[in-house]
What we know:
heterodimer; A: mainly alpha; two-stranded antiparallel ribbon; 12 helices; 2 strands; about 0% strand; B: alpha/beta; Rossmann fold; 2 domains; 21 helices; about 35% helix
Amino acid sequence: MAGRRERLLHPAAWWLWGLGLATAASRTMNPALLLLVIGVCVLLVSERRDPAAPNPLRAFLVLGGVIIVLRVLITIVLGNGVYGDTILFTLPRIPLPEWAAGVRLGGPVALEPILYAVYDSLRLTAILACVGAANALASPRRMLRHLPATLYDVGTAVVVGLTFAPRLLTDARAVHKARALRGHDGHGPREVARLAVPVLETAFERSLGLAASMESRGYGRLVTSTRASRRLATALALTGLTGVLAGLYGLLDASVGGALGLPLLLAGVLLAGASLIVGASKEERTGHHRDPWSWAETATVCAGGVPAAVLVLGSVQGWDGILAPQTATLPPVPLTAVLAIVVAASPAFFTPRPRPQVDA
Amino acid sequence: MISFEHVTVRYPESSTPALDDVTLQVPEGELVLVVGPTGSGKSTLLRCVNGLVPHFSGGLLSGSVLVEGLDTRGHRPRDLATVVGLVEQNPVSTFVTDVVEDEIAYGMETLGLAPATIRRRVEETLDLFGLTPLRSRALGSLSGGQQQRVAIAAVFAAGPRILVLDEPTSALDPVAAEEVLASLDRIVHDLGTTVVLAEHRLERVIHHADRVVLLEAGRTSPLLDPADAMRISPIHPPVVALARLAAWDPPPLSIRDARRRVGELRRRLAGAEPPEPRPTRADPALTLSGTRVLRGRRVVLDRLDLTVEQGSVTALMGRNGAGKSTLLGAVGAQLPVAGGRVRVGAGQLDPHALPARERVHLVGMVPQQPDLLLYTERVADECLSADRDFDVAPGTTADLLETIAGPIDPTRHPRDLSEGQRLELALAVILAGGPEVLLLDEPTRGLDYGAKHRLATLLARLAEAGTTIVLATHDVEMVAETADRVVILADGEIVADGPVRQVLAASPAFAPQVTKVLHPQTWLTVDDVAAALGRSA
Lengths: 360, 537
């Protein structure tokens, strides 16, 4: 294959697919459904991951695991306002002064609040898995090329940030290994604290290097840069960004509720769309090698849209088993929702398979 | 093309200017080489050309830098991107995209070239730099030489009239370095691009240069003819040192020129014998038997056998990615061993079985980035913390540092030291543990000839005292100066192993300059030749 580059699915298709699945995950607290979502993400990534991009899914899953553990620990000590009958054990209660009457420290620990904490943080983990999967399936840097000019500068900053985090892990490993050369091979919290300074220093130095490279290669250069046009571009970028963020918030946070969520989403999309259209007319940056959009992309987006639609509908209509019960029983698993999430796994079979790369 | 008028650059934290009243005119279409010791202001000079100094770095610039008539005071680096391309020292940290082809297109996209033009130029650039087979490869999966070529290609593709490169071959093996320089030669000769280049390894680049600028403590010489520059430069490649010894004038810059004049010197050396290799003790200090090491799922070393004698200096050589660092990592217990045995020291202990606290007295390692070993904010604190780490009397590390590097201001931040001083600090830290075996991974990267010579002297002294030294390096001249034995690795296998003289003289890629010039006689260094002639170099 010396030469022709393999066909990869359009990055936007993967990101829309991930957004759909994340929306679905955000609407349920049923552990079976959430685990299914995570499973679909893992399957897709192992089948169709972009070989040129780093694979952050594992890191995102580890982060999710940490969140679950922390939430459970905090719930055990502080409780979370969920009432439960099934007392597991009792911690010594620490009396608090009057003004902190609403806060409990220690005391009886029930199963129900712990389950609630697990389900709730599992939901966050599932959403993280969707983001991680989208990252691994289509590198955010590839996505960047499809961003319109108004969002391009902000987008680049976001992408650099996204790649910054996984690099921190690599650095931490290198520094930890180097610490062993000075006779430290501990894993305690003090050891981790010692890692922080060299890891951050390395990361800052690399970021500065990248920034200098982008600067000298013409990043952020507007060929006709008058003051007015630069101001307009900034305003447009901010408006578009606000719109997109508001839209995402409306989409992903069920607690905003249908009354506020939908209008917020619509307003966000409108704002973003408007700024993008105005911005596109000022487009001066050009693209090389735009990915084509064909039936496989449309099908992938639909595959992500199906679970989103089904679960939003389910949560609005209050189907059994979409929201977890606040009792210590396993919730029923709605078959329609399961099928909808399984549909999201279908791109693992009909999209073009990226060829694995030979390591040199 | 480029003109510096009385340029002085001062950084706020420094009392002396980084550049001091530099006036310089670089004509169009020439390859100009900037020569100077570390810390003399080479990087500052190069970064002035596209305005990164002072726009990005801060600092105060007086005088003016004009590039194709554009003043860098009024134009930011991004505005000059169509005129000047800058390739920085470490290509990996400058990549913006993930894939070779996208990286090459990136600059043109930000400049807003037409898509059809971009497509055409991407193809042309891939061909020009021999990157076509790699076009869809992930940047992270490339070897160092390939990454460097992509970095140059990516900057070149945007079509600048001037290309500025900072140490483009320092991290590369001799063959990869030749590939990079051949690409540069092509764009200078065929396309008339002006190239400004700084490089420590003069033996690789001096014969490609049209003009040389000597830089010393921020002051520049005028633009010199390379032979004239080498007549006076304190920094010069071995072939020039040999020419000074033999009183050839003007000094030859390439092996070919030198061989035309070598007849008389060869006759004078005919009776003399190169010095005998240093005798080493026969006890093994390092034994690898059937060693197998994996990186991820890739087998890097498989069934490798190697024994190193106590008190010897062994150089590991080979292409980028041949398994040199992996071998060192396995010995230093930085990488797990998947099979076979690793035994170190007089007691033949397994370093992997020891806790880190005890291991450091058995085997010490200075990694490729010595910075990774340094954590504190002052040199003095670093020395004290090393004393504590290795359970030695307070002051031991500071004394070692003084012997290795000479006086260094103890209040300085380790990251503000020069590359050579940082290496010396890391070395002092590791030596505080008094390891029986010392491992060095690419120790000469970024070192000038002076720092390299100091390192060579130190290694010889350590070996004399019984420390076993293994160094992985691309630096042929360093190997010729220090090593007793050379092991060449290719794809994780030992392809050549023997006394330094035999192995280096027999290899076309790894022969040092003096050997190439005096072939078929097998002299390695100018010092050896000088001793044979009964004179000092």
